[in-house]
Amino acid sequence: MTNLTLENVWKRFGSFDALKHVNLDLPSGKMITFLGPSGSGKSTLFRLVAGLDSASEGVVRFDDTDVTRMPAHQRNVGMVFQNYALFPHLNVWENISYGLMLQRRPKAERRARAEELLELIKLPHIADRTLNQLSGGQRQRVAIARALAMEPRLFLLDEPLSALDAKLREHMQNELCDLQQTLGITTIVVTHDQREAMTMSDVVVVIDHGEIQQVGTPLEIYRKPSTPFVADFVGTSTLLEGIARQDGTFEFEGRRLNVGCIGEAERDHTPSLLCLRPEQLALRTQSDDPSHAIPVEVRLIRDLGSEIEVTASFGKYEFLVKEPSGHSLGYSEGDRLDLLLPDHAHVMRA
Amino acid sequence: MTVQSTSVPTAAKSSSFGRLDSKNLILIPPGIMLLVFFLCPFLIMGAVSFYYRVPDGFYEPDFVLSNYAAFFDPVFLTALVRSLTLCAVISVVCVSLAMPFTYLVSRMRRVVQIPIVILLLCILTLSEVILGFSWTILLSRTAGVSNILVWLGVLDRPVSLYPSSFAIMIAMLHFCFPFAVLTIYPPISRFDRSLPEAAATMGAGPVRAFFTVVVPALRGTIISALVLVFVFALGAYLFPQMLGRPADWTLSVLITDQAIYKSNIPFAAAMSVFLCLICFSLILGVGKLSKKSEG
Ligand SMILES: Nc1ncnc2c1ncn2[C@@H]1O[C@H](COP(=O)(O)OP(=O)(O)OP(=O)(O)O)[C@@H](O)[C@H]1O
Ligand SMILES: [Mg+2]
User: Fold this and answer.
1) How confident is the model at residue B142 (pLDDT cuts 50, 70, 90)?
2) Contacts of residue B202 in chain A, CB cutoff 8 Å?
3) Which of A89, A96, B50, B151 could be disulfide-bonded to B216 (CB atoms 3.0-4.6 Å)?
4) Alpha helices per DSSP H over chain A
């Protein structure tokens, strides 16, 4: 159980800043994901934590130890690489017990530890196989077992599930969560799949362009995004530009919307953004309260089988509304309707 | 050319030799080249090795085995053993130096890598003659490195460091090292960086990661490099002559000696055939071995 702290960490490649003033304090024993689009610096941050690269500036701490200048082989972090990085010249159990081999432990002990870990990843009978006798999913589990063999302080996985098919992926997500809970080890998973981040983690760290955008529980990230990027990257949202008022109303295109603004955004003066999620919205032919609705035009109706996605527009804004599938909507494309707004909605700085 | 790539033509042959479509047509020019410049001379040499050598003369077509019988003379047997040992030592030393060297170079930035590779290629373009003569100067009494040692106070007065087997070794190493590096350069630069990184996260320092992961994972490359350098070193015949005593002469020197100075072409041919067979069987054997260890 290790708590990981980064203080004002920068990473430069030449003149390019891959990470900019990263400050993080991650709780111990939790499942943490680094979420961000491709090229946002997730792997870079990750490699700094593992010690495979060194920070250009700043401090990395495990608990109270400053590990900024400590080389990877002294940090005791378990890591699962994106391509698994299993050693081709060793078989399964030798791969798993490689770390113990470095410590010159007796063979019986190494073998026993490998068997134990294979039990943990639910592949007890493959100890003596070579790597090319394993499927992709099995390889990945062996890589996980190997990373856990030395009882690491931190367990790091770089896009561990990206190479697996959808079914296996979901399965492995659950397995990983179970494993993390059994071992209680501080685990960091890198992903660019927001769904994966939302379902797996206790804490999500959203990164974009080398900057931390937000740190929070999945629900916080979804309900109270702190930047437009987060609102857009995690889930679907429509951001209305306007001014949040002290009394909780939102001034938007000459209207005063009675939506109960919550959030950090400054009131009354500077423009802010109102974040509306599909499940907060509903379409009605006529609303009773004009301050609680926006007139929209239905643009597109898509029946996905499980639900119906309706796209409606107001000026340059597009809203996604989800309707239950199975019964008729009572309106069609091109109709003019009222979009009902929620009682409370999140506002953020523009 | 690596040992792995020698197996490629055979694979292509078995799959597409029956039909002669446009894809195969392109194999014809190199095929003819190989036939004319490689196979024919080799067959001629094989034939000559059975010819009868006319005493005090040249040779005439015949079928005698005496050329091969002469081979069992202890002089030639010791030369053979000496050649094989020398080349084995050179090849082991070269590859053991080239492995860490190439590994380190391949991890440097491109701007540093390129000049190093160019320098090695430059050395490789120098012929044996030039390298041999430069070493005779470097190791000589009047202008050689021993003068530096005197200046440093290690020696009392300059000495000539050749002829000696040490001199042969040095020159051969110089000759073979760039070759060794260039043979293992492609597989090492392609080598998956994440393997040593994974080793590091499990507690292996850079040196241990090199010996416990990089070296064993590249054992196929290492074996083929050993063979290639060995064969390459076997072909060197000027260094032992220029930098060694007759007692240090290798089989290649004796072949030259027989062919050029003693005009005993059939005997030289017989020895060459023998040397070729050793090389072939080594390459084939190692090719099989590395294929088995991969599959
Ligand atoms: N060794 C390097 N030299 C120069 N630039 C680099 C280096 N490594 C990464 N970068 C740059 O840093 C940025 C972040 O890269 P990083 O690999 O951390 O992205 P990522 O978030 O992991 O993306 P992905 O999801 O595609 O893996 C990218 O723009 C990349 O080009
Ligand atoms: Mg990455």
Assistant:
1) confident
2) 73, 78, 98-99, 102, 146, 149-150
3) A89
4) 42-50, 72-75, 92-96, 98-102, 107-120, 136-148, 166-183, 194-200, 218-223, 228-233
Q: Please indicate whether residue A191, judged by its CB atom, sits closer than 6 Å to ligand 1.
A: no
pLDDT at B118 over 90: yes
Nearest CA to ligand 1 atom 2: A13
Per the model's pLDDT, the better-predicted residue between B76 and B291 turns out to be B76
- What one-character DSSP code corresponds to residue A145? H
Is it true that domain B73-294 has CATH number 1.10.240.10? no
Q: Residues of A numbered 247-266 whose beta carbons fall under 8 angstroms of chain B's beta carbons: which are they?
A: none
By Cβ distance, the residue of A72, A87, A88 closest to B201 is: A72
Distance of CA A18 from the midpoint of ligand 1 (Å)? 7
Does the structure show a pLDDT above 70 at B3?
Answer: no
Alpha carbon distance A10, A21 (integer Å): 5
pLDDT confidence band for A247 (50 / 70 / 90): confident
8 A C-beta contact, residue A56 and residue A69:
no
Residue B274, token pair as written in the block: 């023998």
**Contact in structure between A47 and A53 (CB atoms under 8 Å):** yes
pLDDT of B181-213, one tens digit each? Answer: 999 999 999 999 999 999 999 999 999 999 999
Closest Cβ–Cβ partner in A78, A83, A89 for B201: A78
Q: Are B201 and A75 in contact (CB < 8 Å)? A: yes
ipTM over 0.90: no
